[in-house]
Amino acid sequence: MKMLSLEQELRENAYPGRGIVIGKSANGKYAVTAYFIMGRSSNSRNRVFVEDGQGIRTQAFDPSKLEDPSLIIYAPVRVLGNKTIVTNGDQTDTIYEGMDKQLTFEQSLRSREFEPDGPNYTPRISGIMHIENGKYNYAMSILKSNNGNPDACNRYTYAYENPVAGEGHFIHTYMHDGNPLPSFEGEPKWVSIPDDMDAFTDMLWNSLNEENKVSLFVRYIDIETGKYETKIVNKNC
Question: What's the N-to-C CA distance of the chain in angstroms?
Fold first, then answer.
């Protein structure tokens, strides 16, 4: 697999939809994740990220303009002990509740499938980061329709044990803009992860399409101590 430029991937795609990046900083000190949302409709664009305990949630920027909250208001990030869950929908809660009952990441997602927003049938993308005793691993999942056929759900899980410093993976909902929107294909993209959180945040935000980007979350977690730093960027502010 060829390592791709995350900046180039974002700059050359006007609508990757929602995206998750997970990896390890170049100095090996931090477990790193980023999550962004984009929108084409006024309802999707009328959102901001806000901190909620150790995680975040989406909320309407202008509540008076909120139309259908079902697929746009959710908690993208939740923390369960030494696990950080990042997803593009309310399956965050499904994973949290499942793993709290000793189910695995994959087992927890068995009760879910792609979003019911035909004809797009937006994939559910999810990530889990596990840090314990100075060790770190992560996994990513995508639940998608069978090439646009909602009668079948294709489930893929990718697990990364002892990730290499400076490396990470990027998964997003759509290959590119379109009607209907084409679901992500293939395994998560191999990308580099820098040490500098501010520079990483700026690169991600500045690379997303100006018209379609909505919000960005970035977190760097110290693998030894578990302490973390979070950055949130909202277009509506």
Answer: 39
Tokens of 156: 């893929």
pLDDT digits (tens, 9 = 90+) for 12-34: 999 999 999 999 999 999 999 99
**pLDDT tens string 70-104:** 889 999 999 999 999 999 999 999 999 999 999 99
Q: Give the 3-state secondary structure of residue 128.
A: strand
CA–CA dist 117, 94 (Å, integer): 19
Helix, strand, coil shares, percent, the chain, to 5: 15, 40, 40
Q: How far is CA 220 from CA 49, 106, 109, 193, 229, in A?
A: 17, 24, 25, 11, 5
Give the Cα separation of 82 and 116 in Å (integer). Answer: 31
Which amino acid does the sequence have at 29?
K
Q: Which domains does the chain have, with CATH numbers?
A: 16-234 (3.60.20.20)
